[in-house]
From TrEMBL:
GO terms for biological process: transsulfuration. It comes from Lacticaseibacillus rhamnosus (Lactobacillus rhamnosus). This is Aminotransferase class V-fold PLP-dependent enzyme. The keyword Transferase applies. Belongs to the trans-sulfuration enzymes family. One of its GO terms (cellular component) is cytoplasm. GO terms for molecular function: carbon-sulfur lyase activity; pyridoxal phosphate binding; transaminase activity. Its cofactor is pyridoxal 5'-phosphate. InterPro entries: Cys/Met-Metab_PyrdxlP-dep_enz, Cys_met_metab_PP, PyrdxlP-dep_Trfase, PyrdxlP-dep_Trfase_major, PyrdxlP-dep_Trfase_small.
Amino acid sequence: MTQFNTKLVHGPQLNVDQAGAIVPPVYQSAMFRFAPDGQETHWDYARSGNPTREYLERQIATLENGDAGFAFSSGVAAIATVLAIFPDHSHFIIGDSLYSGTDRLINQYFSQHGLTFTPVDTRDLAAVEAAIRPETKAIFFETFSNPLLKVSSVKAISALAKTHDLLTIVDNTFLTPYYQRPLDLGADIVLHSATKYLGGHGDLIAGLVVSAHPDLSEKLAFLQNTIGAILSPLDCSLVTRGIATLSVRLDRETANAQAVAEFLAQHPDVAHVYYPGLKTDPGYALAQKETTGASGLLTIKLADNIDPLKFVNSTKIFDFADSLGTVSSLVKLPWFKLPEDKRADSGLTPQHVRIAIGLEDQQDLIDDLQQALVAAEK
């Protein structure tokens, strides 16, 4: 059987290229010819399907051990399409610490258009079960939450969902199928912002969805075509390129993150480090059971004597910017992107810094953070 790293490089072949190209070609065409007798062919109009997109969609489905994959123009577009499969008045249990774009989509759009949501700490199975209503349809959460990296059990939540005839929807952006395959643990739908680790180079916006069952695949295929938030052929090609080096990049980024986390954990100017790769992290034991790596993202809480804004503006290698999962390292102040009405319950303060680790030299990253801490002392 072909192993995972080989599947990253060699996706399912479509056998449509007549030139013998090794790299899947970019089919930059809006339409495809009908058969001579006027019958439709496999591809006709690019919103409905494109060979470049189909290669990527088959590949991500293979990597996640799912039934079918779907590529979208952004991670938020992917989430919106998944939520659109549910009827009006559906209720969802959601993680209480979600990516800000997901939170905005849920609370400022879908909650005003017939869906309801109850945020819960998904680490607490009793709280999850207590939130179930007769109209509940699904449980939606991030395996490692953003940005405090709380670790929830995909296996336990999926088992609970099945006993209540609910779907489990998992955002697997931080871990990717290299470190966790939620469908193997019982989930029904897995989502990715492919902008992050899957794309991996900070040069595209993309979202991916993989469904576990043909009935869900049919619904998602219909909505992908009907809503039309598809990923362009060029961006599909860029994600495919990124996937080929996924494990190599994540191995390096995770090793770098582990070293940086260990350094910061003992630093007097850092009050706390949130990283499931540390043995002192409350999610460490569960992460060891359900994942094969802690990935390249960590969050720290600076000591009170450190000016957070000065800290992020004093780094030389780390860029002060949003996003994560790219080849270069980034820092961000998550508190300042939160709506004011959500700050009190977020667990965040102005002292929290999210650190996305890249491929740079490990010691250079540590030295950069050290000098920034010195520069930011009040």
